[in-house]
Amino acid sequence: MKDTAKHQGLRNHLVQELIKKGISDKTVLNAISQIPRHLFLDSSFENFAYQDKAFPIGAGQTISHPYTVAYQTQLLEVKPNQKILEIGTGSGYQTAVLCKMGAKIYTVERQIELYKTTSVLLPKLGFKPVLMTYGDGYKGMENDAPFDGIIVTAGAPFVPKPLLAQLKVGGRLVIPVGEDKQVMNLIIRVSETRFQQHELGDFRFVPMLENKSR
Ligand code: SAH
Prior knowledge:
By secondary structure, the protein is an alpha/beta fold. It has a domain at 59-203: 3-Layer(aba) Sandwich (Rossmann fold), CATH 3.40.50.150. It has six helices and nine strands, in the order ααββαβαβαββαβββ. Strands 5-4-3-6-7-8-9 form a seven-stranded mixed beta sheet. Strands 1-2 form a two-stranded antiparallel ribbon. Helix 1 (5-20) runs antiparallel to helix 2. It is globular. S-adenosyl-L-homocysteine (SAH) is lined by residues 57, 61-64, 87-88, 90-91, 93-94, 108-111, 114, 136-138, 153-154, 206, 208-209.
């Protein structure tokens, strides 16, 4: 599959739709207008890739809605060169958005099949995370902490403590919390010991899988 003028037109349309839905961060919109979402999906979805919808990506997982990607990314307030940890690499689309914004990305995926596919796809498309790993996102990435931002792209039953511990002071954790449906939480580390928690809109994510070996 190629990226053509037709795809660019569909992306411009999607960006307008996201603006109408309330996304205002220009750096986020700019990244979405440039990233070929259709290349992160099976070719059978090519004609639908720029609709604001979730699609299957294999291993029972889905790529998030573009609105959800934009909303979570906007909440992270990413600046170039910041260190960002992503839990749930999935298709790699959210990872690509963060790379495009100039952040240094560390990303972890729990499904081996997705990890293998996406770790080949991202560099092929010109997106280079600092680290892509296969592992359990509940633990974060202790060796590479602390992070300026952490984004969880699966529904978490609770806020994992290691993720709070791996945030810099001033850092932001964006995490959907809940079992059947999730409330988007923005947690800001305001000091070594204090966290400010904001509960934002309702969303629906695939569940964050607890460690299978437990
Ligand atoms: N950011 C992805 C969203 C994929 S859906 C995208 O843009 O395509 C959420 C992903 O989180 C799935 O790929 C799922 O396998 C992964 N996941 C679920 N539980 C996890 C865990 N404990 N650790 C790491 N990844 C996990």
